Amino acid sequence: MNAVDYCSFADAWEERATIRTRPRRQVEDDQRLIYPLSRQPLVLSATFVRECPQQRDFALVQSLYKFIHDVVIFETEIVNHTASAIARGRFAHDFPFACRYDAMTVVVDEDYHALVAMDFMQQTIELTGITPVALPSEIELSRAIPAALAQVPERLRQAAELICVAIAENTLTNDVAAFARDTSVKESVKGLMADHLQDEGRHATFWQRLVRIYWQAAPADDQASLAHMLPTFIERYLTNDIQKAFDLALIEHLHPDPAVRQALREEAQGLAFPISRQHPLLGNILRFFKGSSMLDSPCVRDALVAYLP
Ligand SMILES: [Fe+2]
Ligand SMILES: [Fe+2]
Fold first, then answer.
1. What's the pTM value of the predicted model, to 2 decimals?
2. Within a domain: residue 46?
């Protein structure tokens, strides 16, 4: 596909964007979980179940707060930084009007997702009386993107940012899908995730097409420079340093006995996914490299050799 073949999804946006079609989600006061156990495995650990099972809902609520807070950072600071530059024609590569218009629908969607997330956090605080104890000021991408950009020449920084954001927008989608299918959580939470997913399916395709247009017009030298940064980006993106720090901060609030807290810390250490071919998000990332045509370039295959099947 080149820029001329770009087909806008403006009509699909008018019909299906959640800001156009969805009612406000209100958290219900029922017995279902507010956050899936599988996404906060600390509460399933032997020490937790033995020493502080009554803290389960507190830990899940705090984990929901972190998830919501991460969404707000991702949408407003990461995705919209790039989407807004493209929409306003402030991007190093010239995209046709249809691309810029679609980029503006992404900006609107993401700001709306951030608004919905803030609303839901406020509702949860009112319902539970539990206030957030440990909200990190960064997400993994806040570190991974600058680290990747530092490896490319100045003139390729925006293109590098486009690729990083496109990867992230293509991995998050499956992550939210698993959440929306989880039958153990409240209907409002599932609805919230399903709404978000409805928009993100469109976004994933949008970013893939944009990268494809950019990539196919890029000179081989530029492609090689951009391919070179990919391992750094993937490695930093897939670490769970921030999640670990969050879990450690959370543990401080779970039990008064220092010995129990130490045992919980040790449990938390074992919960990380190693960054390898088996990492659960890696399949999504590779699918993006195929869909965007980047994987057709030998320089990209060489750079990703450690991750390819
Ligand atoms: Fe979003
Ligand atoms: Fe998005």
1. 0.94
2. no
For residue 106, give the nearest of 162, 185, 33 by alpha carbon. 162
Q: Is the dihedral of CA 214, 216, 218, 222 positive or negative?
A: positive
In a domain, 11, yes or no: no
- Report how far ligand 1's centroid is from the alpha carbon of 111 (Å): 8
Residue 22 CA to ligand 1 center (angstroms) comes to 14
77, 42 contact by CB (below 8 A): no
Average pLDDT over residues 47-56: 97
Q: How far is the CA of 55 from the centre of ligand 2 (A)?
A: 33
Residues 136/225, Cβ–Cβ less than 8 Å: no
The pLDDT score that the predictor gives to residue 82 is: 98
CATH number at residue 140: 1.10.620.20
Beta pairing partners, 185? 33
Amino acid code (one letter) for 30: D
Alpha-carbon radius of gyration of the chain: 20
CA of 202 to the centre of ligand 2 (A): 8
Distance 195 CA to ligand 1 centre (A): 10
Half-sphere exposure of 103 (CA within 13 A, CB side): 29
CA atoms within 13 A on the CB side of 289: 24
pLDDT range class, residue 3, cuts 50, 70, 90: low
Q: How far does the centroid of ligand 1 lie from the alpha carbon of residue 117, in Å?
A: 10
**Three-state DSSP class for 185?**
strand
pLDDT one-digit tens code per residue, 183-193 = 899 999 999 99
What pLDDT was estimated at residue 229? 98
How far apart are the C-alpha atoms of 166 and 25, rounded to whole Å? Answer: 28
Least distant ligand from the CA of 105: 2
Identify whether 270 is part of a domain. Answer: yes
Beta-carbon neighbours within 5 Å of ion ligand 1: 75, 110, 113
Ligand nearest to the CA of 102: 2
Looking at the structure of the chain, the number of domains it has is: 1
